User: What shape does this take?
Amino acid sequence: MDTDKKPIHMDLHLDLPKNAHPKLVDLMQRCWETALDKRPSFFEIKAELDTLQLNLRLFLKNLRSTFKIINVVDDE
Assistant: This one.
């Protein structure tokens, strides 16, 4: 076996989704860091995804409320 050979590093990953939330894109890119110590832990990933999900749910709830108000005003 040749011990002088070094491992080949291939920077392969999926394409980033075009319409993904910027915070999700940032998280994905940090997960792909070549330096292991720069990657988020699974605990950090879960916490960030939970926060993003909560913020998106609140945003959608507020958006629905806004459209209900607009529809009520438009119906009058």
Remarks:
- The mean pLDDT is 83.
- The helical segments are 22-31, 42-75.
- The two ends are 82 Å apart (CA to CA).
